[in-house]
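User: Some background: our group keeps a shared notebook of sequences we're curious about, and every so often someone picks one and asks for a predicted structure to add to the entry. Today it's my turn. The entry only has the sequence so far, pasted here. Could you supply the structure so I can complete it?
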Amino acid sequence: MMSSIDFLHDPSPPMSGWALLVVGAAALIATAAVDNRYAAARVEADQAAQAQSDLERQRRQPVRATPPTASEIRLRQAQAESHAPWLATLRAIEVTSQDPIYLRSLVIEPAAAVVKLEAEAPSFAEALSYAKALDDVSLLHPALLVSHEEVADTATGKNVVRFSVVTRWNSR
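Assistant: Of course. Here's the predicted structure to add to the notebook entry:
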């Protein structure tokens, strides 16, 4: 048996070859589509993991407090000063500052709860008794005589003792 070979015409490929070519192309397209879907899912998972790690990192970092504004600082100072026993302190100083003691100046430092007094007395003994009288007031304790000097009074020409007393108020 002799088969005939025709060199002028191209031999037609078998039908099974065409079928294999179509199946191979479909498999290649399906593989590419599945790979793209899995790659997109991997990218989404990586982004979600990155966002989760960023969120955890932010949670672990300490929260920085915002610095108080100038008005908040003034409000805090005013609140602290409003609790000071102003009226009782001034009343105690007024009651103990009787004749012959004359106050020259009064300085109150509310933040430190310190009261500084400068006064005049006819003698050192009266200046000392004034400091002791302030010390005996339960609100003002301890009262310390920090300085004194004998000077001539310009109005009368007599010698007087100028002295300074420092005390703290106690709000208990």
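Suggested note for the entry: The chain has two domains: 14-61, 83-168. Strands lie at 102-109, 114-121, 144-152, 159-168.
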